[in-house]
Description:
Distance between the termini: 46 Å
Number of domains: 1
Number of helices: 3
Strand content: under 5%
Largest sheet: none
Oligomer: single chain
Order of helices and strands: HHH
Shape: flat
Amino acid sequence: MLEVLMIITTVALVGGYFYILMKRRKHQDNPHGWKGYVTPTVFLLAPVLALASYLFEFGGMVTWFILGFAFLSGAYFTKYLPQPEESHS
Length: 89
């Protein structure tokens, strides 16, 4: 039962984040190309990898190393994220 709840929660959160990301990025130009998508991709794939490692009992040094490398690369590529537009409301 816990595994089903974890899968549903992960799918809902990742799907919602992906929807919001695409909605916000639709009208923004990305002058840096693929580099602007590294950080959002890391934040989309990290919970999926963590859930998969839990479900398949593949926890340990390899999973921690992959997640650590992913978060470090995501943090590095934050400088290539597009700047938010100013809202005049």
